[in-house]
# Entry
Amino acid sequence: MSVVLPARNDAAALRRTLDHLVRLPGADTADIVVAASGDSEGTARAVAGRARLLWPGGSTRAELMNAGAAAARGEVLFFLHADSFPPADALGRIEDALRDPRAVGGAFEHRFAEPHPSLRAVTWINRIRYRLTRNWYGDQGIFVRAAVFRALGGYRNLRVLEDLDFTRRLKRRGRGVLIREPLLTSGRRFLARGPWRTFGFCAWLVLLYTLGLDTERYAERWRGPAEAPPGTPWPAREAAP
# Structure
């Protein structure tokens, strides 16, 4: 198995995720790849030899994940955000899920790491949504057979919602597996920008995407400037698109 972590100017979060990841059962034999952009010194210190560190030159998360996948050696790709924490038996659960030859990939349940009431409510709304639609997002820890990933052409180079686009295409290839165990993800973006305001903005982006309308114009507002780590506050209102 290869674990692919995209990282952009997020050394502190990446260090915590790697601290957690390398302690998981099976991590000692996993191929861990960090595809990074931005802060080279901080990222190198965070990795500290615990993963193969790539500097592919891309700026979008899709480009970084595709570059990491291209360098990966495993038959299974597990895409993990740099601020996410898989459950203790995550690698074994992925292997078990893919023993079914019909299964092409899957994801974990989502839960925010912070015990905030609004984040708990957003978590449950999201669970209803992805259990009904089988559309998963990157903060659920998407995993996929490497051969299937390559056949699909990887992630499309979208600046936002590349994960939704990918899982929609993945569903057409075979059975997707939802592992009913939560993967914890930092809610810092939601807390910094307001949980319900951020949730509403996410819903707006998904609606635009579903209707085939332009989402790229909102990408910088969602992701933030290239030099800023995830979780920075919203741009000033007058600077919004």
About this structure: Residues 76 and 145 are 4 Å apart (CA to CA). Residues 236-241 have pLDDT under 50 and may be disordered.
